[in-house]
Structure to design on (890 residues):
């Protein structure tokens, strides 16, 4: 993002502040739990137990985390260019079409390990193309990307509803979804990985190969952003468009390329539920992962090393939250959404709320550790 | 002596490490016009923003009519009778004049009675001060001069006794400016107090009663306008600093490297900043462009270096055209041997959030020596940065340190090292020593002389007159977007100061 952060020691910047934000979010959530007459500590225990207490729980947590890694990376790449891609939701949704078309075409004839690369391409290309139009409008016409990507979420949703109740639905079927994919369109589960650690995992647990793809993409994003000429240009643009102009970097070109990458990453999220778990394309399979990606990127400070743990945290909230709703009758599904909302609020939207205080504390204890804010040469 | 309308006592204000105002004491007499002059960055606007409640002073006291007051917001300022006319107008473009006037001063939920009241009040103001403007005209359809009048009306409508005008003539034509001055004199006769912030000395001489000169955050002098001269003010403004003696031999100018013809540039608001400028820079000479900041120098070098599109004119680099009116690409110009050290190193020349080594390739990041296919050769980049750090004595010598954490002088050395090490044929340098400590200034000056002695063409822009005089082989003076004169390096400070203030060209015109 364009405003450089004021200096704090790295451990405080990347560890302490997210931790404080998280604790405040949980305290707020605890209050909500208290209000509905349940014990917040027991609720917390159930949540953690549900997410990490069993092999199956972990498999679910990592399955959700897979979605959030993809969408978190998508948002982060755009952030590095100073762009706020809110359209991950729609890009992933449309990418479901790309994945679906590839799988429906090839699942009878190809083995999964041949369908998978094709489906990755299908997901990436359709996600990228869905991001291309807002990117073009931003780069050439100055239409604000936040607005256009939000609008494109709605267009994506309506398009997919039309396709899933019409052309993509098998004749005579009642549910608004495609036919079930056969073996050639199904990714291997990774439950056995956890079993190797002595955990028991139900065969139905959805953790699958796309988790490894997500980790690989996290590495690729790091490589692209910090080790290539393109990444260098993206970051220059993100910090200062004037400096980019000075350096001979084309704003139009960089905005469009960045958004294509961002859209492709968001699009790959579609692989996880479609090929990995439910084996069909159904209505609303993204279910908010695109938006959670924003919180994940903010919390992970737009760095893959932060995004992966942040995604796992949100995976935990999803999985543990489901268990919690099951165990505590007073806590409904909606309460879980409140808790997730609080985490997003404090870790994402109010990310910098405690920063001045922390900075003041650091400054009073050891002024040297904080350094000096860069002098601002603004006006007279 | 009239009583003091406003007294500022010991005002201090810092932004980070920059002390924008230090220990300012100022008395503004009731019923007078005070001029505040100073270069950009001298702290004029900061001081007035404190008075108007945009900023809070770190320490110090504001007295209005002899009583100490706390001004925390513009509303407080208005309550104490202080009104401000900003350089960039604060008007709602698609509202009418009267709607803008009552904006924020509506008396009740329904507008009808407020508008009726405003209408009669506007008529009174118009009668008393000659501020005629159609109350039902829509702002965006009014010329700039009238928009400014609406700003003045807004302040008076709110009962302003003290009116601050920040660079009021910057956007006005000469005729509009003359009209503004007539209005200001009328306001003064009616007992209003006026503070005029400007860097145009002619205006100060024409209209003010007293003038305070600011430099580097302090008021360096206050004079009665009738008893001072433009030369004295120019000297005070630019500052008679110790002339840094630069060892340099005779220039041996060679072939023309950079040739600018009839260049005209407008800024983003459409105001012409550079008009019809022509000059040449030869290999082996330093051409300095002197001028008070804001007279088009910035736009000139931005256009020549391909950052800002020019309206018309042509620029030749080594005999081949630069597409200054089309798609000039700064990257391509670098390949052709044109290096540029921009005036604003914080936002243009550097990315402060980057590590030092990342900035040491900015603009040259597509050179093969730093690349391995699409990948950056991170080790080569860092080795290269370390080499430059050693050669230019950049401190601390840590190429992984965030650029924001280097001092101003060392940041400037990072930029210079990057541009000079490419051995360009033409070097354009903007404000090479702004915010740079004295030790680094000498080093930077030596580097520029060395460039010249190697037969390179150097175009130097600086608001430091001493710097221009000690480095340049030829000095061009810019005023109001034009080159108003050319002098040799032996021109006196007073002579250049007059040219910079537009005095000679003004007299010639009259």
């Amino acid at each position: 993002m364009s405003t450089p952060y004021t200096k704090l020691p790295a451990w405080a910047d990347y560890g302490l502040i997210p931790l404080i934000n998280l604790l405040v979010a949980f305290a707020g959530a605890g209050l909500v739990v208290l209000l509905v007459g349940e014990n917040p500590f027991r609720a917390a225990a159930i949540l953690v137990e549900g997410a990490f207490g069993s092999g199956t729980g972990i498999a679910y947590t990592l399955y959700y985390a897979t979605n959030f890694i993809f969408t978190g990376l998508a948002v982060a790449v755009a952030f590095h260019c100073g762009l706020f891609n809110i359209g991950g939701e729609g890009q992933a949704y449309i990418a479901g079409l790309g994945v679906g078309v590839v799988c429906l075409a090839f699942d009878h004839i190809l083995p999964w390990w041949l369908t998978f690369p094709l489906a990755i391409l299908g997901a990436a290309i359709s996600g990228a193309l869905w991001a291309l139009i807002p990117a073009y409008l931003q780069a050439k016409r100055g239409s604000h990307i936040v607005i256009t990507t939000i609008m494109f979420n709605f267009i994506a949703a309506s398009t997919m509803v039309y396709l899933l109740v019409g052309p993509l639905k098998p004749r005579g079927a009642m549910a608004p979804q495609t036919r079930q994919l056969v073996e050639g369109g199904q990714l291997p589960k990774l439950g056995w990985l956890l079993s190797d650690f002595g955990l028991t995992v139900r065969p139905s647990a959805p953790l699958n190969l796309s988790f490894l793809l997500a980790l690989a993409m996290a590495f690729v994003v790091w490589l692209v952003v910090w080790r290539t000429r393109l990444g260098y240009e993206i970051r220059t643009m993100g910090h200062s468009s004037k400096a980019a102009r000075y350096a001979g970097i084309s704003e139009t070109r960089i905005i469009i390329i960045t958004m294509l990458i961002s859209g492709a990453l968001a699009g790959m999220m579609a692989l996880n539920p479609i090929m990995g778990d439910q084996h069909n394309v159904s209505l609303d399979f993204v279910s908010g992962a695109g938006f959670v990606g924003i919180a994940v990127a903010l919390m992970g400070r737009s760095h893959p090393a932060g995004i992966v743990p942040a995604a796992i945290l949100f995976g935990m909230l999803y999985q543990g939250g489901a268990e919690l709703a099951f165990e505590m009758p007073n806590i409904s599904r909606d309460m879980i959404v409140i808790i997730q909302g609080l985490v997003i609020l404090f870790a994402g939207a109010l990310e910098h709320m405690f920063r001045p205080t922390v900075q003041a504390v650091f400054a009073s204890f050891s002024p040297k550790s904080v350094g000096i804010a860069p002098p601002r040469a603004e006006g007279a | 002596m009239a009583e003091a309308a406003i007294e500022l006592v010991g005002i201090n204000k810092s932004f980070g490490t920059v002390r924008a105002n230090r220990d300012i004491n100022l008395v503004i007499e009731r019923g007078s016009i005070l001029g505040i002059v100073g270069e950009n960055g001298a702290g004029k606007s900061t001081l007035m923003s404190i008075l108007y409640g945009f900023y809070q002073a770190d320490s110090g006291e504001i007295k209005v009519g002899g009583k100490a007051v706390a001004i925390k917001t513009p509303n407080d300022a208005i309550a104490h009778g202080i009104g401000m006319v900003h350089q960039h107008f604060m008007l709602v473009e698609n509202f009418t004049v009267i709607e803008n006037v009552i904006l924020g001063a509506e008396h009740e939920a329904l507008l009808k009675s407020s508008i009726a009241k405003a209408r009669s009040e506007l008529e009174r103001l118009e009668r008393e001060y000659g501020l005629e403007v159609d109350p039902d005209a829509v702002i965006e359809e009014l010329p700039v001069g009238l928009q400014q009048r609406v700003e003045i009306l807004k302040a008076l409508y709110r009962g302003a006794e003290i009116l601050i005008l920040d660079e009021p003539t910057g956007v006005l034509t000469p005729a509009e400016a003359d009209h503004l001055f007539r209005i200001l004199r009328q306001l003064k006769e009616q007992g209003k107090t006026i503070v005029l912030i400007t860097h145009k000395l002619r205006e100060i001489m024409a209209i003010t009663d007293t003038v305070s000169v600011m430099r580097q955050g302090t008021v360096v002098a206050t004079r009665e306008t009738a008893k001072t001269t433009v030369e004295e003010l120019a000297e005070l403004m630019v500052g008679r600093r110790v002339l840094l003696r630069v060892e340099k031999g005779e220039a041996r100018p060679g072939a023309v490297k950079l040739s600018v013809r009839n260049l005209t540039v407008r800024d983003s608001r459409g105001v012409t900043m550079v008009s019809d400028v022509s000059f040449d820079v030869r290999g082996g000479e330093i051409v300095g462009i002197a001028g008070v900041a804001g007279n088009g120098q910035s736009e000139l070098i931005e256009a020549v270096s391909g950052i800002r599109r020019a309206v018309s004119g042509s620029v030749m680099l080594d005999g081949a055209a630069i597409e200054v009116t089309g798609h000039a690409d700064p990257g391509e110009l670098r390949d052709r041997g044109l290096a540029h050290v921009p005036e604003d190193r914080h936002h243009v020349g550097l990315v402060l959030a980057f590590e030092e080594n990342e900035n040491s390739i900015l603009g040259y990041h597509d050179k093969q020596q730093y690349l391995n296919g699409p990948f950056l050769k991170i080790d080569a980049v860092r080795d290269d940065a370390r080499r430059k750090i050693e050669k230019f004595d950049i401190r601390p010598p840590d190429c992984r340190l965030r650029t924001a954490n280097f001092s101003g002088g060392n940041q400037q050395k990072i930029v210079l090292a990057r541009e000079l090490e490419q051995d360009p044929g033409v070097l354009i340098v903007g404000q090479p020593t702004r915010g740079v400590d004295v030790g680094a200034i000498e080093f930077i000056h030596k580097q520029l002389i060395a460039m010249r002695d190697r037969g390179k063409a150097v175009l130097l822009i600086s608001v430091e007159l001493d710097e221009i005089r000690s480095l340049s082989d030829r000095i061009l003076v810019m005023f109001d977007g034009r080159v108003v004169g050319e002098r040799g390096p032996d021109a006196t400070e007073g002579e250049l100061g007059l040219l910079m203030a537009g005095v000679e060209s003004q007299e010639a015109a009259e």
Summary: Chain B touches chain A through 49 residues (CB under 8 Å).
